[in-house]
Amino acid sequence: MGMFDPIKGFGVTFSTMFKKVVTEQYPEEFHPTAPRYRARHQLNRHPDGLEKCVGCELCAWACPADAIFVEGGDNTEEERYSPGERYGKDYQINYLRCIGCGLCVEACPTRSLTMINFYELADDDRRKLIYTKEDLMAPLLPGMEEPPHPMRLGDDEQDYYTYGPELERDRSGKDEEALQ
C-alpha cells in the first residue's frame, strides 16, 4: 500500500466536488427507458378481445422465484373468455418475489404473457404488489366495451388452434397429409 493512496482517493473526491450537479426531477419529468427494456408483465388479448391465456400454468412452472399463481377454468358457451376449452380463471403475479428473468414469457405457448416497458412498481403496501388478472390484462381496443361472445375463429386462427403453429405454417396441402 502506497503512501500516496489516500491522497489519490481525496483527489477523486475533490475533482467531483466542483462539477455541475445533475438533478432529475423524476416524478414531474418522466424520462423513458431504453426501448428494449422490459419490467412489468401484461396478459394479451386476441384482436376480437378474447383472452389469449388458456390457463395452462406453464408460466407458473417456469418461474424460478415461484411468483406466479394460475388457476384454470373451463369455458362454456354462455361464458367464453378465450377461444379454447380453458381460460385463466385466477392469475396473480407477486412482484415482491418476481426477479424479472422473463422465463415465464418464454414458457407461454400462446404468447399471452409478455413484458412491457413500464417500471414504476414500487409501493408502500405489500398487498398492492400482488397484481391480479384485472391489473395485468391488456386494455380492450378502442370502441370495444367487451369482447364478442361466442368467438368466430378466422381461417388462420382456426388452423393455429387445430393443428398447432408448426403445421399451420405450410398451407400447401402437406399439413393434411401429415395429420392423417
TrEMBL record:
<feature type="binding site">
    <location>
        <position position="63"/>
    </location>
    <ligand>
        <name>[4Fe-4S] cluster 2</name>
    </ligand>
</feature>
<dbReference type="GO" id="GO:0048038">
    <property type="term" value="F:quinone binding"/>
</dbReference>
<feature type="binding site">
    <location>
        <position position="59"/>
    </location>
    <ligand>
        <name>[4Fe-4S] cluster 1</name>
    </ligand>
</feature>
<dbReference type="GO" id="GO:0009060">
    <property type="term" value="P:aerobic respiration"/>
</dbReference>
<feature type="binding site">
    <location>
        <position position="108"/>
    </location>
    <ligand>
        <name>[4Fe-4S] cluster 1</name>
    </ligand>
</feature>
<feature type="compositionally biased region" description="Basic and acidic residues">
    <location>
        <begin position="146"/>
        <end position="155"/>
    </location>
</feature>
<comment type="subunit">
    <text>NDH-1 is composed of 14 different subunits. Subunits NuoA, H, J, K, L, M, N constitute the membrane sector of the complex.</text>
</comment>
<keyword id="KW-0479">Metal-binding</keyword>
<protein>
    <recommendedName>
        <fullName>NADH-quinone oxidoreductase subunit I</fullName>
        <ecNumber>7.1.1.-</ecNumber>
    </recommendedName>
</protein>
<keyword id="KW-0411">Iron-sulfur</keyword>
<feature type="binding site">
    <location>
        <position position="56"/>
    </location>
    <ligand>
        <name>[4Fe-4S] cluster 1</name>
    </ligand>
</feature>
<comment type="function">
    <text>NDH-1 shuttles electrons from NADH, via FMN and iron-sulfur (Fe-S) centers, to quinones in the respiratory chain. The immediate electron acceptor for the enzyme in this species is believed to be ubiquinone. Couples the redox reaction to proton translocation (for every two electrons transferred, four hydrogen ions are translocated across the cytoplasmic membrane), and thus conserves the redox energy in a proton gradient.</text>
</comment>
<dbReference type="InterPro" id="IPR017900">
    <property type="entry name" value="4Fe4S_Fe_S_CS"/>
</dbReference>
<dbReference type="GO" id="GO:0051539">
    <property type="term" value="F:4 iron, 4 sulfur cluster binding"/>
</dbReference>
<feature type="binding site">
    <location>
        <position position="98"/>
    </location>
    <ligand>
        <name>[4Fe-4S] cluster 2</name>
    </ligand>
</feature>
<dbReference type="GO" id="GO:0005886">
    <property type="term" value="C:plasma membrane"/>
</dbReference>
<dbReference type="GO" id="GO:0050136">
    <property type="term" value="F:NADH dehydrogenase (quinone) (non-electrogenic) activity"/>
</dbReference>
<feature type="binding site">
    <location>
        <position position="104"/>
    </location>
    <ligand>
        <name>[4Fe-4S] cluster 2</name>
    </ligand>
</feature>
<keyword id="KW-1278">Translocase</keyword>
<feature type="binding site">
    <location>
        <position position="101"/>
    </location>
    <ligand>
        <name>[4Fe-4S] cluster 2</name>
    </ligand>
</feature>
<keyword id="KW-0677">Repeat</keyword>
<dbReference type="Pfam" id="PF12838">
    <property type="entry name" value="Fer4_7"/>
</dbReference>
<keyword id="KW-0830">Ubiquinone</keyword>
<feature type="compositionally biased region" description="Basic and acidic residues">
    <location>
        <begin position="166"/>
        <end position="180"/>
    </location>
</feature>
<keyword id="KW-0408">Iron</keyword>
<keyword id="KW-0874">Quinone</keyword>
<dbReference type="InterPro" id="IPR017896">
    <property type="entry name" value="4Fe4S_Fe-S-bd"/>
</dbReference>
<keyword id="KW-0004">4Fe-4S</keyword>
<keyword id="KW-0520">NAD</keyword>
<feature type="domain" description="4Fe-4S ferredoxin-type">
    <location>
        <begin position="43"/>
        <end position="73"/>
    </location>
</feature>
<feature type="domain" description="4Fe-4S ferredoxin-type">
    <location>
        <begin position="89"/>
        <end position="118"/>
    </location>
</feature>
<keyword id="KW-1003">Cell membrane</keyword>
<comment type="similarity">
    <text>Belongs to the complex I 23 kDa subunit family.</text>
</comment>
<keyword id="KW-0472">Membrane</keyword>
<feature type="binding site">
    <location>
        <position position="53"/>
    </location>
    <ligand>
        <name>[4Fe-4S] cluster 1</name>
    </ligand>
</feature>
<feature type="region of interest" description="Disordered">
    <location>
        <begin position="141"/>
        <end position="180"/>
    </location>
</feature>
<dbReference type="InterPro" id="IPR010226">
    <property type="entry name" value="NADH_quinone_OxRdtase_chainI"/>
</dbReference>
<dbReference type="GO" id="GO:0005506">
    <property type="term" value="F:iron ion binding"/>
</dbReference>
